[in-house]
Amino acid sequence: MMSKPEEAPESNASIKEVQWTDDSIRWEGGLRVKTAGNDGDGDGDESSGEEDYVIDPFKDPDPFELFSFQFERQDNTSSSSISGSNDEGDKTTSIKIRGYKKDADEVWQSTGLTLWKASDYLCQYQMDNLHIFQSKRILELGAGLGLNGILAWRSTITCPDTEICITDGDSDALVHLRENVERNRTTAEGEVGNISCHQLIWGRTSSEQFLTHIAKNQKYDVIIASDIIYAAVIVEPLWETVRTLLQRPGGGVEGGVLVMAYARRKVPVSIEIVLKKAIECGFVYELVKEDDEEGIWVYTFRFRGEI
Q: Is the sign of the CA dihedral 215, 234, 271, 170 positive or negative?
């Protein structure tokens, strides 16, 4: 499963955050970055660098990019639930996201530092189905730069009961995620959206701690995720997390839904593996949006009754 991360000096709420980047999953032993003037262990032995993946962080003098988006709602969506303009007739939500360019060296260590195509595709589904997200407790997993969670927040900003919790396990991505949340704050009258950002490394134990200390034992009505599948080792921890944090049906309470966008990429894990594990964990799924030409799909997952 996931290697034990090192503790970071800063804490978040009642759970101490840790220094962890997702290269520890994608590369055996992690991606060791070697730069000019750094021979790896500092002992002057140049041969020690042979095992390092050498990355030149100075390849691009400006590796950052500001991504600008405008998402349009459907005509049957109430204008009172949309934000981004003072014009009541405006149907768009505007979002600005700052991150690394896709070819930046930093993305090799933390994939969440840039945007991937499934996140944009999931945004389209969100805008077409705003009723799923209005006045709900929403959790985003593996948020990276936070596009989908920020859209869930901005597009329901006037709904007083909507709560958004955006998470990522990668400590580098969390820095940029929090900056992007602040970048999209406004002081417009009537905005009451509740949003927070936290570290969440997937797995049953860490998710139980998250549920107790961060979620205050309140499970989520909606979980969203996009482009989060890139290694087979994360599939089981993913479903352990969803089983722990998604609202179960019963006792007059409607069960929650996971909305996940998946894009075909050259990674050693397929969507079939993810779907098979979902069934084993007691979920049923539905394909709700697809673009076969681009290789992007959106699935919804719900508990199969009481488990």
A: positive
SS3 61: coil
The residue whose two tokens read 């199969």 is: 304
164, 79 Cβ separation under 8 angstroms: no
Question: Looking at residue 209, what is its pLDDT?
Answer: 97
Does position 182 have pLDDT exceeding 70, yes or no?
yes
- What pLDDT score was predicted for residue 145? 93
Sequence-ordered list of residues with C-beta below 8 angstroms from that of 182, at least 6 positions apart, any chain: none
Minimal CA–CA distance to 190: which of 279, 83, 73?
Answer: 83
In whole angstroms, give the CA distance from residue 299 to residue 289: 7
**114, 121, 194 from 64: Cα distances, Å:** 9, 22, 28
pLDDT of residue 59: 61
**pTM across the whole model:** 0.79
Report the alpha-carbon distance of residue 87 to residue 79 in Å, rounded. 10
Q: Is the dihedral of CA 235, 260, 295, 120 positive or negative?
A: negative
Higher pLDDT: 267 or 209? It is 209
Angle at 290 between CA 286 and CA 298, to 5 degrees: 50
